[in-house]
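Running this now, will post back.
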Amino acid sequence: MNKENTFLVAVEELKEVAKLQNYILTQDQIDEFANEMELDEGQLKLVYEYLKANKIGINEGVDLNEYLSKEDISYLDIYLEELETLESVTEGIKKAITLSAMANDNSAKGKLIELYLKEVVEIAKLYAGQGADLEDLIGEGNVALIMGVELLGCLERPEEVEGMLGKLIMDAMDIYIDEIGKEKEADQKVLDLVNKVAEASEELAQSIGRKVTVPELIREHDLKAEDILEAIRISGQNMEYIEEHKNGDA
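Update: finished.
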């Protein structure tokens, strides 16, 4: 692995450390990282920019509201107002509820879910701006929270609950954002294919002075029959410069 790749991998590992610390790194951790990696001033500046872009605070958390869109803020105002109707409890009562939930008490499980709903919101803010709507992120987080509460029986101490639920919520949001990214990538590939076929058919049609057929496109352009037919199908048989296709034409 070359020096540049080693640096990139190390920065990603630093990000993972921050995730375990509620997206906060201490200045000492960053200084230690810089010394171990023998970073120059330019590389250290890149590290700070990377941390800021990923909402990682130094010694204290960043103001996550600064990263939210107007739409996210509008939704959040309404959602948090609804959560305010839920009863708040002291740390002692929360621990008692946690212990009961760990003992498989369904009533306590429901109460514990309510107590962690705001935590889901705070975690969702960390993922805002990565291609997914805040509302959807909160929805995914809430599902993970509900499922996680059913798994508390495997823990030994109530102090482990917050970390376990937080990880499950973050993992769910990571997966959702990854799926959204793959869907957008697939959509872009489809759009690129349709545009490629449309441009090729227009170019050929203009050169021969009429609409073109699928076999002509195959001969004159670097296109596969299945790609052309797929583009025609996706466009709703609405390719302006291609003769209406019939089964068996290709």
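DSSP finds ten helices and two strands in the chain. More later if anyone needs it.
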